[in-house]
Amino acid sequence: MGRAVAVVHLRSEVSDARHARVLETLTGLLPRVGVEGRGVFACDLRGTERLLGSPERVGARIVAVLERVRIPVAVGIAERPFAARVLAERAPVGEVSRLRPGEERMFLSRLPVGVLPLEEELREELGLLGIRTVGEFADLERGAVLDRFGRAAAAAHALARGEDAGEVRGAAPRRRIVAKRSWDAPIDRTDQLLFALRAALDDLGTELRMDGLAAMRLEARLEREDAAVLRLERLVLPPTAEPAALLRSLRWALEERPGREGLGLVTGVRIEATEVELVRGRQIGLFAADAAREEEAIAVARYLRSRLGPGAVLRPRVTDPESRVAEREVEWEEAVS
Asked: Which of 177, 227, 256, 262 is buried deepest, with most CB atoms within 10 A?
């Protein structure tokens, strides 16, 4: 299964208690759940099909479980959270609606431009220009939208065209989970910086575990003596509180930053877990494929391919499972594309 996101839309009074109850239920059912808004939740279904069934089956189970506690919802399923959310908002209560790959842009194109996250003033300006549907807005040239209307409009334009990153955003922690470090002697080498960051991430991991949380997104601010602050942001897959895994994510963020600017003279760091999810037991991994571990392997494979080039990350495919020596009947293919 490719990318699939299920958005659960609460269709009743959204009290704090009901919002928390739905979030607790979803995090007990699925490996990655984010909060899109009050009473709106996005569930990343990548890697879950072998364990939980098709996306429609997962959606039906969510509806049934919440119906048992008298919480009515609708579920929309698409490749990206935005399209899934719009679909869920329009689905009948108790229903599961799905957009197949390639259907998102057509579905959105017929809707009014008001479904996009745009300021009212900009919506009125677009109306004066005769642009009233998402499709008409999507047909505008990308650079022209950025130049005339700014970054917020460009982000909405990407949503309209299905060109957004499509990430499931995690819930913000109930309190600020931050670790800081500073050094008397500036650090100008990446290997030395990573060694120094480990101490800060040990503290961050301890704070996360105290709250029973795993970091889903990290933000780091590197204070520099000879340059402006260097800001890094990284989605953590799978979410974790383990310092070694958090350090690996920041190392990748350093290596992949645009332009590979020089590190400079780093004098201190502030690292914050800006999105988190509840830590859950992983016993299921003893008996079946563990989706989170699979996603981590995919993330590592993609990173290696980006560094080493095509043909560097391969996996075997057994062409004759009935062979007495199956390993001799193998073809090699790209693990990621």
From this structure: 177
